[in-house]
Design goal:
Number of helices: 2
Shape: elongated
Distance between the termini: 42 Å
Strand content: under 5%
Amino acid sequence: MSTTNNDTSDIKKAAEQANGQEIEKNLEDNKKVDAPKSLSEEEQTSFIDEELRTDK
């Protein structure tokens, strides 16, 4: 994506090509999402090493 502020930016192109009716339809749909899968005991590790925490 271009970082310049000219008229050919990706954001401007996307805005020009947006279909308002399709966006409205997508927002109205009650789409169900899958429930999160349970993690194994090995996968349930914290991202922060408890010994290194300074906020306790």
